[in-house]
Specification:
Blueprint lengths: L6 H13 L7 E5 H15 L4 E4 L6 H8 L4 E6 L2 H9 L6 E3 L6 H8 L2 H6 E5 L2 H10 L8 E6 L21 H12 L4 E8 L2 H4 L8 H29 L7 E4 L5 H5 L6 E4 L1 H4 L16 E12 L2 E5 L16 E4 L4 E2 L9 E5 L11 E5 L12 E6 L2 E6 L11
Helix pairs in contact: 8-10
Length: 403
């Protein structure tokens, strides 16, 4: 990560301000130089394995196309089937993996009625019931084969504990084999891939203010990865007895290097690292350069060392805690008022630098998560040097696939 401190932060603020001076706040901006640097860094960390871009972390068609045009990137991991259909129809990609099972009958009907879509999109399954629903929409003899990806649970289960997210019920190689056998026996389907997302490694920062907690997380992640590499290899081998897999997907921004080193994995997913949100400041292995920001205007000065901006409550999903709040970033030295935080319609900011701000001045924030920034704005300002060009977000194109 480029260490944006002191004069480098001041230069960044000057560029963002100049590039967007003609616009009214709120403004969301992406620094293209940082975005491209992060894309290149992720490719280097993948060590030759292709990267699949996680669209939920980008949520802007222009930027998806930009990263997919770079060497080392191929294919999209979408978060809903309806989004996947749209991306293929718009020509963004001809290779989409939908990361979560779908029960969207309308989107399933569209998928199964178009051979082009059926050949470009793979859907996630972890139970035969997912296939039952598709058969109810369109019977096997009246559709092209539906491409399937088996979701292998990547959580770590030492003894009675469960470390990681609750995703697929398929955890062991034996369970994967049983499901694979049932999937390939069903007419109208083709098992083409496996996915295993190690959220407790890729999505948990290991460099926290509390040194003891950091060490506990580091040990957990090391032991979890060791166990997963063995189990994933066994599961892939078991499934390959029944299906000729085209891909085995794993990882996320926080584990690109570690997951790429796993021989069983053929491709790695990344997305958040392109924007560099604040949650990724807490990673030892690699921290992306901050690339995505949003600006709010100061509207009043209620007291010395307090400047209040309009809006600000752009809270990220996940547990309701401090880490999910946005962070005031530019100018440096601002912080939230503890009893108010980031407010719905106003946000008081504290610190000596607040005395330098006047109504009409801007404060630039960083969001805690990547793509969720785009749910608040209709367009991103793509900043190149000291100029900016607008690019619509999913929301700006009229789509709220999850909201």
């Amino acid at each position: 990560m480029v260490d944006l401190t002191g004069s480098s932060k001041a230069r960044l603020q000057k560029r963002l301000d100049r590039a967007t001076a003609h616009l009214e706040t709120p403004i969301a901006a992406v620094d293209l130089a940082a975005f491209d640097d992060n894309a290149a860094e992720l490719v280097e960390r993948a060590s030759g394995k292709p990267l699949r871009v996680a669209s939920k972390s980008v949520r802007c068609r222009t930027l998806l196309e930009r990263v997919l045009a770079r060497p080392g990137w191929h294919g999209v991991m979408a978060y809903t089937l309806r989004e996947a259909v749209w991306l293929v129809r718009e020509g963004v990609t001809d290779d989409v993996l939908v990361a979560y099972p779908t029960v969207d009958r309308t989107a399933i009907r569209e998928l199964t009625s178009d051979p082009k879509l059926a050949g470009a999109i793979s859907i996630m399954v972890d139970h035969p019931a997912h296939l039952d629903l598709i058969d109810q929409v369109t019977s096997p003899g009246k559709r092209p084969d539906v491409r399937l990806c088996l979701d292998l649970d990547s959580s770590w289960k030492p003894g009675p504990l469960h470390v990681g997210v609750r995703r697929s019920p398929v955890h062991s190689a034996a369970q994967a084999a049983v499901l694979a056998r049932r999937l390939v026996a069903r007419p109208g389907f083709r098992l083409v891939g496996m996915m295993s997302y190690e959220a407790q490694i890729a999505g948990v920062g290991d460099l926290l203010p509390n040194a003891v907690r950091s060490r506990v997380i580091q040990v957990m992640q090391q032991n979890s990865l060791t166990e997963l590499i063995r189990r994933r290899a066994d599961a892939v081998a078991a499934v390959r007895q029944y299906a000729d897999l085209e891909f085995v997907n794993g990882g996320g921004t926080g584990s690109v290097a570690a997951t790429s080193a796993d021989p069983a994995v053929t491709e790695v997913t990344a997305g958040s690292g392109l924007y560099g949100p604040t949650l990724f400041d807490a990673y030892r292995a690699w921290r992306p350069t901050p690339a995505a920001f949003f600006a709010l205007s100061v509207v009043r000065r209620p007291a010395p060392r307090i400047a209040t901006v309009l809006g600000g409550g752009w809270i990220a999903s996940g547990p309701a805690e401090k880490s999910r709040q946005p962070s005031p970033y530019l100018p440096a030295g601002l912080r939230f008022k503890p009893d108010e935080g980031a407010g719905e319609v106003q946000t008081p900011l504290l610190g000596p630098v607040a005395d330098t701000l006047r109504p009409g001045d801007r404060v630039w924030f960083r969001h805690a998560k990547a793509g969720e920034l785009c749910e608040h704005v209709n367009e991103l300002q793509l900043v190149d040097g000291e100029s900016a060009a607008p690019a619509p977000t999913y929301r700006g194109e009229g789509h709220a696939f999850l909201g």
